[in-house]
Each structure stands twice: as structure tokens, then as C-alpha cells.
């Protein structure tokens, strides 16, 4: 299974989600290829934001990817595409050509533990904010990552995609 996490610049939320998912899938013994991309070209070739790395490293995550911009090839190759917020979702959808591509796009918050009570939460962009915004970002991402792993384990991933996906 190939999972793509997507935010705006690919230096804060999506590399954090990539790192968290890699660790969570590994812990669960699930073979998943997790990568990330951004909808903009602002930071192509850059490593994750210093606070993304600092807070993530303190939580036991590693970072090896560099920022890249989302392309139609990403949409074809991924099995699941996780948008961090409504704006990212709209930007991803603008690149789609087929219903098959749209059927695998969902906001990451669809896997969070509070999705039924509160709707689907966006993962706010912490860029330009202090460290506590990055801590909150990781709290949200870790919760959604655990939910995604559960959805794969209990075979409800397709149900979540159909219920909350972008089609």
C-alpha cells in the first residue's frame, strides 16, 4: 500500500504525518510505503521545518525526505492521499483528472478519534507559529495515524474513503 500525505509546503504537516505513519505502520507490522508532497513549490528540496524535526525527534520520529511538489504522477501512484486541510484538499482535487484519483483522496482528520462527534478536523498549518503549535499538530497527526492504522487492520479503509472521501 502506498500512502501520500499532502500539505501546502511539504515542510511541516505532511513530513510529520509521513514520519508518524511510517512508525505506526511499522509497529503494527503493516507493509506501507509512506511519502509526502506539498501543493506549492515554496520549499522544494528543503528538509522538514526545524520545529517539525525538533518536536518529532523528541517523540521518536525520523526524517529523511525533502520537500517536493505534488504532481499528477503522485495521484496515480498512491493508493491513499491524505490532505491536511480543506485548502490542501481543493488544491489536490484541482490536479485530478479521473474519478479513480478522486476516490483515494481524503482529509487525514477523517481517521481521527473525534470525527463522528465533531466532523472532520483540519490539521492547522503551524508554519510561522511557536513550538506549541507544532506540539498540537503532532497530537492531531498521531491520533489520526492510529485511526488510519486501525482502518487498515479492520479493513474499514474503503468505508472511510467512501464516506468522507473527495469524490
Automatic annotation (TrEMBL):
The keyword Hydrolase applies. InterPro entries: LMW_PTPase, Ptyr_pPase, Ptyr_pPase_sf, Tyr_phospatase_low_mol_wt. Residues 1-151 form the Phosphotyrosine protein phosphatase I domain. Its EC number is 3.1.3.48. Gene3D superfamilies: 3.40.50.2300. Belongs to the low molecular weight phosphotyrosine protein phosphatase family. PANTHER family: LOW MOLECULAR WEIGHT PHOSPHOTYROSINE PROTEIN PHOSPHATASE, LOW MOLECULAR WEIGHT PROTEIN TYROSINE PHOSPHATASE. This is protein-tyrosine-phosphatase. It comes from Yaniella flava.
